[in-house]
Amino acid sequence: MPxxxxxxxxxxxxxGPIIIGQACExxxxxxxxxxxxxxxxxxxxxxxxxxxxxxxxxxIADHVYLRPLTVDSIEEILIEQKIDAVLPTMxxxxxxxxxxxxEERGVWEKHGVKVIGVDVAAIEKTENREAFRQLxxxxxxxxxxxxxxxxxxxxxxxAQEIGYPLVIRPSYTLGGSGGGFVHxxxxxxxxxxxxxxxxxxHEVLVEQAVLGWKEYELELLRDSNDNVIIICSIENFDPMGxxxxxxxxxxxxxxxxxxxxxxxxxxxxRMMRAIGNFAGGCNVQFSVNPDNDEIIAIEIxxxxxxxxxxxxxxxxxxxxxxxSKLAIGYNLDEIExxxxxxxxxxxxxxxxxxxxxxxxxxxxxxxxxxxxxxxQMKSVGEVMGIGRSFIEALQKAxxxxxxxxxxLGADGKHNRSIEEIMYGLEHASWNRLFLIKDAMSMGxxxxxxxxxxxxxxxxxxxxxxxxxLETELKRYSLNxxxxxxxxxxxxxxxSDVQIAYxxxxxxxDEVYERRTSLGIRRVYKMVDTCAAEFAAQTPYYYSTFEExxxxxxxxKKKIIVLGSGPNRIGQGIEFDYSCVHGLLAxxxxxxxxxxxxxxxxxxxxxxxMANKLYFEPVYWEHVREIIELEKPVGVIVQLxxxxxxKxxxxxxxxxxxxxxxxxxxxxxxxxxxxxxxxxxxxxxxxPKYGVAENAEEAIVVANEVGYPVLVRPSYVLGGQGMxxxxxxxxxxxxxxxxxGDLPGNRVLIDHxxxxxxxxxxxxxxxxxxxxxxxLMEHIEPxxxxxxxxxxxxxxxxxxxxxIADMEAYSKKIAKALNVVGxxxxxxxxxxxxxxxxxxxxxxxxxxxxxxxxxxVPYINIAAKIMLGVNKLKDFKIERKLDGYAIKxxxxxxxxxxxxxxxxxxxxxxxxxxxxxxxxxxxxxxxxLYKDKSxxxxx
Length: 938
Known about the structure:
Elements: E1 9-13, H1 25-39, E2 43-47, E3 63-65, H2 71-80, E4 85-87, H3 92-104, H4 107-110, E5 114-115, H5 120-127, H6 129-138, E6 146-149, H7 152-162, E7 166-170, E8 180-182, H8 188-198, E9 204-208, E10 214-222, E11 228-236, E12 249-251, H9 258-274, E13 280-288, E14 295-301, H10 306-315, H11 319-327, E15 354-360, E16 381-387, H12 390-400, H13 418-426, H14 432-441, H15 446-453, H16 457-473, H17 483-491, H18 496-503, H19 508-517, E17 523-526, E18 540-544, E19 558-562, H20 573-588, E20 592-597, E21 612-615, H21 620-630, E22 634-636, H22 641-645, H23 648-653, H24 663-670, H25 672-682, E23 689-692, H26 695-705, E24 709-713, E25 723-725, H27 728-741, E26 747-751, E27 757-766, E28 770-781, E29 791-793, H28 800-816, E30 820-830, E31 833-840, H29 847-854, H30 858-866, E32 884-890, E33 911-917, H31 923-930
Parallel strand pairs: 1-2, 1-4, 2-3, 4-5, 18-21, 19-20, 19-22, 20-21
Antiparallel strand pairs: 6-9, 7-8, 7-9, 10-11, 10-13, 11-12, 12-15, 13-14, 15-16, 17-18, 23-26, 24-25, 24-26, 27-28, 27-30, 28-29, 29-32, 30-31, 32-33
Helix pairs in contact: 1-10, 1-11, 5-6, 7-8, 13-14, 14-16, 15-16, 18-19, 20-30, 24-25, 26-27
GO molecular function, one term: carbamoyl-phosphate synthase (ammonia) activity
Subunit structure: Composed of two chains; the small (or glutamine) chain promotes the hydrolysis of glutamine to ammonia, which is used by the large (or ammonia) chain to synthesize carbamoyl phosphate. Tetramer of heterodimers (alpha,beta)4.
Organism: Pedobacter nutrimenti
């Protein structure tokens, strides 16, 4: 069936602020859907309250509504303009729940709006646990024994009937909120109460726990002709018992028998056809008994999901893009295959490589959190490694995590305590993968590890092979490693750092020199969705060690943009937004734009965003070889957060041009001593400070600068390890802990300006002129990390003198640091005196927010200035803001109920939303201002 021509305008519902369980994968799917519909001549409107995303940017949709995600906001939009249809499947659970609520309130019918991409009845069937269970029974699909409970009494009766261990799954929640395992009777009452409270309908499913069974996911697409295709099979490395968002996953499935896979496919197709008459994407989760291949269905989501973003990147098949075309009436065989451009979208991708996703956790931000993994998701981001084998992809994913690992072990970070290792194998946490390797290195038998972890033997055998290779490598020195063996090590994903560590007394550079002299270099393979069966037009690559290189280097002038790696607290989606704008600016000004990043959730790793995408770790060895192959004019490090900035020194040492602000000037801003000397020279006030390398020195410094003091390590992001202390005893504890967590670091001790106001400025400098992008005043006092503060644009209570000083200091610092591009400065204001706390010569968390509030494409302007194509005077900048915009931080405390909620200098928020107010009489603002000191902790 061709396109439904009655649909001329579509509203896409976004997913709101980033929270654990619903992150930037929906920014990716929403952006893809909007661009896909615009290709069809459809007018696209988006409602989303998240200012940090590319989805809420003018380059994506015709109309962007940065409004609270409520049915009332949706109705306001429907009154303002004619909307023919709403697409709710791109915005996670938030969008589905809103769509359902609007349906119940009769909003869609009243305004003549058609719901596309999902059947509202299907949402009910899949989200209501009892309705889903009954449907599975009706169509002959196996499910775990379970009962629904709407009260304490019903829950206890269900538990008695099913027996322990049990799972409690609340209805209508996201990321496993409120769910958990109950192993014994004594734990049941507390778990049941929590589940009933977490469900908006106070309903839970009490279910038999199939702990230790294998877990799989299938990503499906279906059109209105009832054609269904399976895009990707995904196998969880971790068995049942850990939320899929917290599981290491592998695509395609590795340990599934062909008979079992065919059976699973057929069941998934039956399930998708049974949940309603709609066209779009769907995610199905299964569990398989490893003893007899018995399959049971866990759940089905009638929308794109976290896994569909992963599956899109894994296969090169853009699920959200195709799903939105299906939603407006097309059939699969009528849509062009986006990769080959010569075949149709009615095909199932074939992978001739392996994908490994590893989640990224941030437990260090949640002191006292229960770090054991279970049914409730706790990770804040993820990375994806692509390799020719499972083990190569696994090691690349470990290098991508940015937790200081050079791969899976062999880097000096191993655990030698057999008690801790065995406990960690049984009680899964963020480091279980590394502990498995440590256990094998210490001689723990593979079968013992399998029994305690219940991880499939095939995966464990693969990891054991690494241990054997390491033992063999130790027999050689760098100069006598046989070429074939060296090649094998690289094929198995070993980094030069790991090889250097295992050989001892050798540097990474020496290993690199030796292997390149042997002719062992990376080659790049294309992700083409069809295992090279058809010619692919998409420049999307991963590296491996083989003979043939598929990445053809053009003779155009090139720019490489370094991405920000996995999302984490302190470095989130706002840097992806900046990278996308960097790519667009480079393309607009005639450069070939090349992206390097390893985050599967992001728009910057979409196959059609850059001229060329290298899906690789933002890790020196990988970046270095891409630069050597492509020979770019330069590399942009300003847009990828601290991840990209940390690579500046290596680039500088190797004579690679950094686009924009030079390395030495960035280093002045990062190095507290050099920066304070600069401020002194410029006659700009700053809090007294000192630097210490141990606790004794710290006490001397603190007494000189005067308590209270702010203690922090140098060169970190998101306030990592920061604390405010008021006496010698607390200081000693803080410094010992810091140096234990970050050995070799220096500790900065600043006098803390108690009860000061905190403000910040963002600006662009072209080497001659400085333009202030925006000044923001924080509602909360100094002492709460800027990322956790509610901030108001423009300032609401600062005197003219303070504003003039902030602007003057911003301009002075920008020029003194020779900034070319972006600069963010944090200030503290006390008794009308402005002190500079820090300066960051890079894109900040606040620039996307200011760009949306003022409706000015600031990153695009900054990127063109960095590239040397334009000066500030070339742009006519007109701000459009009536009233004020407030940046509201959003926290994911519901995932860590045991963690205290007070705020301090270390950032804890996972996302943010924007709220516009006309004036300061607004009741929302007045409440925020009244509560401003409530959560401040020391």
